[in-house]
Specification:
Shape: elongated
Distance between the termini: 63 Å
Structural class: mainly alpha
Radius of gyration: 26 Å
Number of strands: 0
Length: 156
Amino acid sequence: MDKQATGQPVFTPRRERGIDSFRRSMRRGGRKRGKSPLGAVLKGVLISASITVIGVALFALILNWWNASDRAITAINQVVKFVSILAGVTSAMGAADSGSALRGACVGVLYMALGILCYSLLMGQSPQLTAYLADLGMGLAAGGLFGMILCSRKGG
């Protein structure tokens, strides 16, 4: 018996490849590709800056109740910077298999450069690169090391 004779609908698969099929395949292809390294680094810098703002705000609230010395304030500021760089490098790594140290170093240097620029603007000073080379070097080293450590932990 024929299916049409019984009143059941006939299913015929759609074999033509129109614009809808093209759009679906483009969406699937976009999901397979990873993020661009530049976008990942910029995301890491923004996350680092956000964590720094939150950390400094919390630290300022704590300082209202705690009479800390200048050395303690400097040490805590360094810890906030390291935690921020670690969070930024972690977010910039994503699923990257290669270039982790370079990606981390870029996040660290750009984060520190952004911090130096913001500090200079807030204090009304022109940025003097020679005075801030130590901070840039720390960002480069910390970001690169965090990138290598995170890559080796992911692989192992």
